[in-house]
User: Which sequence fits this backbone?
């Protein structure tokens, strides 16, 4: 018996790429931009998009309204269309040996040659930067503070004592499979309730229990291996507050380039708040959140459209079941 699983939905665009999580996976997808379908623009815009297996990632058949007209014209795009997603696959994107500088600003800014193609909130791994070797192998959320085609900020990194020069970076396409994730630490306050800053948007919630790992290179060794419950979070600063009194501890300082090699300081999820009904349950540290799906590119020629566009989509997956 052969058949097709069809799923459908709608969303209002924020002017950004959209990831559709489709449990059955995708063999084909078609998208309609209802907002632009009902109007005309002085610059013609894409209103209908189609993709199927066999086409390259990023591509799509696009139907665009002719400038200031309801007439449609067809074209084939090779970027900004549809991209299959499997977040259980390798998360590493292409290595770009294009870093030309990392600044000593309060929030460090990376300068790259060429065009980086990044969006605010992307995650980037830094590799082998002369003068900033201490950043090697670390992942950072980038671009929320500074972003252009040739610059991106390391949003939650502490200030560097010395500038970096040449090196490499690569985009991390997917988060690790299991939630909540281990996160690298860039700062810890000395306070009655320690406030911890992490290099990548952390995703933790109040009530989760975490173990703090701080090697000697960071200074605050007194907190190493202690377990704390998260009592508050800040999404603006990418911090968690834990019920660990660090007020008398040695000051925390991110290592310098001369300290390489060293082991990263980490926040490691270990379970739920010890006061909860499922005290320190490992379930909250082993939730597999990987998914199959497809990404829709944004913009006037992208299936995810522009801000406030109402988008309808319909996707199918063929199957075959033997009757024997």
Assistant:
């Amino acid at each position: 018996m052969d058949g097709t699983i069809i799923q459908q939905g709608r969303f209002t665009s924020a002017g950004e790429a959209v990831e559709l999580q489709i449990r059955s996976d995708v063999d084909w997808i078609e998208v309609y931009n209802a907002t632009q379908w009902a109007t005309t623009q002085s610059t013609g815009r894409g209103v209908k998009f189609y993709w199927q297996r066999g086409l390259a990632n990023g591509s799509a058949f696009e139907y665009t309204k002719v400038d200031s007209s309801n007439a449609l014209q067809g074209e084939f795009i090779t970027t900004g269309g549809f991209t299959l997603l499997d977040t259980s696959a390798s998360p590493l994107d292409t290595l770009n040996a294009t870093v030309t500088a990392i600044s000593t600003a309060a929030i460090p800014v990376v300068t790259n040659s060429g065009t980086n193609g990044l969006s605010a909130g992307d995650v980037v791994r830094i590799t082998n930067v002369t003068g900033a070797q201490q950043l090697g192998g670390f992942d950072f959320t980038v671009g929320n503070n500074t972003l252009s085609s040739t610059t991106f900020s390391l949003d939650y990194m502490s200030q560097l004592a010395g500038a970096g020069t040449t090196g490499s970076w690569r985009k991390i396409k997917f988060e690790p499979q299991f939630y909540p994730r281990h996160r690298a630490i860039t700062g810890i306050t000395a306070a009655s309730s320690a406030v911890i800053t992490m290099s990548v948007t952390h995703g933790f919630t109040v009530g989760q229990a975490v173990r703090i790992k701080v090697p000697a290179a960071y200074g605050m060794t007194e907190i190493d291996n202690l377990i704390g419950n998260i009592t508050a979070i800040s999404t603006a600063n990418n911090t968690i507050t834990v019920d660990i009194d660090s007020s008398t501890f040695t000051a925390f300082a991110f290592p310098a380039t001369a300290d390489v090699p060293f082991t990263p300081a980490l926040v490691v999820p270990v379970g739920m708040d010890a006061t909860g009904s499922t005290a320190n349950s490992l379930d909250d540290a082993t939730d597999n959140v990987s998914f199959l799906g497809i990404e829709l590119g944004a913009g006037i020629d992208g299936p995810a459209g522009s801000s406030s566009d109402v988008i309808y989509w319909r996707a199918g997956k063929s199957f075959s079941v033997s009757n024997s």
Q: What stands out?
A: The first strand starts at residue 2 and ends at 12.
